[in-house]
Each structure stands twice: as structure tokens, then as C-alpha cells.
Amino acid sequence: MTLAEQTQAHAARLVRLTADTFEDHVVGLAEVLTACVLDGASVSFVDPFSPQDALRFWRGKALPGVLAGDVDLIVALVGDEVAGTVQLAADTPANQPQRADVRKLLVHPKHRRKGIARSLMLEAEACAAARSRSLLTLDTRTGDAGEQLYLDLGYQVIGHIPAYALDPRKQRFEDCTFMYKRLR
Asked: Mean pLDDT over residues 2-25, rounded?
């Protein structure tokens, strides 16, 4: 199944945001990030976490990379609603021109189990190929559903770091799995 067929099958349309389209979707991005954090996603934030915190992240951390041309910010839209997002960061050191990082794969809890995360990852890989990036790296909380998705997509485990990050509810430290994939 092609990316277009997958996207259509899941009633989601994938869009790469630009400086011109970012503000049209920033509130939706904030809603997805907030919902994911409050649902327990380990994506660098802890509770309490507000929509204002999420807006600060998108405008202060993600947008500068998009403006610089170093980050592909991809959103999955269901109708006009942002259902999910992922970033491909190609702002790597000069001695790593072949590499890019996958960051912040997020799917709103109400849109999960519909193939949106897989479609977003495939689009991130297409963006990497368009940038002539042949090695992708990422990290994920050990044991999360995302870890299995990445394995299913051909990512290889580099290793695990115990007690790497505080869980979103600040109850314990959790392990992290680091992964990579070589693109053809």
C-alpha cells in the first residue's frame, strides 16, 4: 500500500508545515501535545502541563527549526483537526550529513490505532530521503507501543539506558531505548 493509500484509508491527510502554514495549525499541535502528555506520553514534559506550555514549545522550540529549514514538521489532519505529528530534524553536525533525528511522534489519544503513527513515520522517512539522509535515529520510552511500531518499521535497537527520564507524572524514572534505521 502506498503512503497516499494508507493516508486515505485512515481518513488522515499528511501535510508538511511551513512558516506560512505553521500558525494555521499551532493550536491543534498544542492540543495534541497536551493530550499526549496528560495521557502519560514520555515526550520531555511533566504534569502539570497546559496548552500554554504546549504553545510555548511549538513556537519556541519547533518553529525556529522549521524557519531555518532544518526541521520537517509533518501533521496528520482528520478533516481540519490535527490528529498527529512528527518532526524530522536534519540539523546535524557537519560530520553527520547522512543522519537525521525523528522527534516527537505524537498521535492524539482519540485518533490512535488507525495507522496514523505509521503513516507519519513513513512520511518522515520520505522527507529524509528527499534530504539525502540515509540514517535515522530516535529514542523512545522502553516498552511503549511506539517501540514496537519502530521495530515493525525496521528500526534497530542500539541500546537501553536505565532511569533515563522522569515519567510525566513525576512518580519514577523510566528506561529509554535508542534506535536507528538505515534507509535504502
From this structure: 78
* Cell 518499521 sits on residue: 153
Examine the pLDDT at 76 and tell me if it is beyond 50: yes
Per-residue pLDDT reduced to its tens digit, 137-152: 999 999 999 999 999 9
All three cell numbers of 78: 482528520
Task: Give residue for cell 540515509.
Answer: 134
Q: Report the alpha-carbon distance of residue 41 to residue 45 in Å, rounded.
A: 9
Edge-first strand listing for the sheet containing 99-107 = 13-17, 71-78, 81-89, 99-107, 135-141, 173-182, 156-166
Mean pLDDT lowest for which of 2-11, 22-31, 41-50, 119-128? 2-11
Q: Which amino acid is at 73?
A: L
The pTM score is 0.92
